[in-house]
Design goal:
0% strand, mainly alpha
Length: 188
């Protein structure tokens, strides 16, 4: 669970620092944090395929920071948070489409090789990634809608942002444990 929270630190920084259509500082800090995570994870020996979200985050925030620092008004205006989560949705859906769910390589680092090689392990991670993809998609849509019709509804916007990450995170933990219990029961 902490691994996922750490992975989303650039997005959390962006969400906190990008208010009132001002994406510049959020994008710069998001880019710096994402790059820092990639460097730290590579030094720790994590494989590139376990860093899909970190690399995607660095790419998104790098481009956004470059544009935000050179274009006025800031790109995406008030819809920056919705676009940012939309990018995560696209990233998650693409990893599913190419049959490399972004959770797969992360989860591989937490289990023995024989478990990671099983088809069930792949299916569990495909389900978890699909839940994240749906959550990101719904989060982006709801944020876009809220920002369009009630841009000053700060509590609702924050609630959507938090739920958009908390719900799939909790699902990931619960579903992973449930799948592990089922697998152990089959072996026993």
């Amino acid at each position: 669970m902490l691994r996922y929270v750490r992975t989303f630190l650039p997005w959390i920084a962006f969400a906190v620092l990008s208010t009132n259509g001002e994406a510049r500082w959020g994008a710069l800090v998001g880019f710096a944090v994402a790059c820092g995570l990639v460097v730290l994870d590579r030094r720790a020996g994590r494989p590139w395929d376990a860093l899909v979200l970190e690399i995607s985050s660095a790419a998104f925030f790098g481009v956004l920071a470059a544009v935000a620092c050179t274009v006025t008004p800031a790109p995406f205006g008030d819809f920056g948070p919705a676009v940012a989560v939309g990018w995560l949705a696209v990233t998650a859906w693409v990893t599913l489409a190419i049959r490399r769910p972004f959770t797969l390589a992360i989860a591989r680092t937490m289990v023995p090789a024989e478990v990671a090689a099983s088809p069930v392990f792949y299916r569990v991670n495909a389900v978890i990634t699909a839940v994240w993809a749906v959550a990101f998609t719904l989060n982006a849509g709801l944020l876009g809608l809220l920002l369009a019709v009630a841009p000053h509804a700060t509590v609702a916007i924050v609630a959507v942002k938090v739920c958009g990450f908390a719900i799939p995170a909790v699902f990931t933990v619960v579903y992973s444990k449930s799948a592990a219990r089922r697998a152990r029961a089959l072996v026993s």
